[in-house]
Amino acid sequence: xxxxxxxxxxxxxxxxxxxxxxxxxxxxxxxxxxxxxxxxxxxxxxxxxxxxxxxxxxxxxxxxxxxxxxxxxxxxxxxxxxxxxxxxxxxxxxxxxxxxxxxxxxxxxxxxxxxxxxxxxxxxxxxxxxxxxxxxxxxxxxxxxxxxxxxxxxxxxxxxxxxxxxxxxxxxxxxxxxxxxxxxxxxxxxxxxxxxxxxxxxxxxxxxxxxxxxxxxxxx
Length: 220
Hints:
The protein has one domain: Vaccinia Virus protein VP39 (Rossmann fold, 3-Layer(aba) Sandwich), CATH 3.40.50. By secondary structure, it is of the alpha/beta class. It contains six helices and nine strands, in the order H-E-E-H-H-E-H-E-H-E-E-H-E-E-E. Helix content is 31%, strand content 22%. The strands form two sheets. A seven-stranded mixed β-sheet has the order 5-4-3-6-7-9-8, with helices on both faces. Strands 1-2 form a two-stranded antiparallel sheet.
């Protein structure tokens, strides 16, 4: 049985205040290494086999997307935004710093929802965070949907793409940040920017990942 723990205290105790290499304007509670915080999460919750604490890292796709949003603020300025699978809240925070009128950061991990709230306050922005799986409902009527690093599992990638295409058909602009995960449907996307992102060998297969920002191709 999962043990109730103070998520805020856990996050503060097992992370450090760090700025992602590609997005120095943002400070987040991040872990230095994956395995220790993963093991500690399982120990404190009394549950083995939990998913990795994705919220504790600034993934390459998210960094690229956050960088692009900050450098191209007109995309979100004065507009309503959803950050899907928000994790640490990096992309959501970047959107607010770029002038978004509102941001809903969605992540099904309760720790992520707590981390988003802590990180938003740390960066002086207001973000609504929800643990609801937005893929189970119709896309909300927002101006922009941002997605960082979500195409790492086949079934999830298929659900996400279908949901995003539905959103775009209703007039929502969709941007995806991804470093070439296995199930990224490149043939259905158009690359609009690319970055070299410093990452940890503890998380990736290289110290520098090439991560791109994509939009849905209009003919797919």
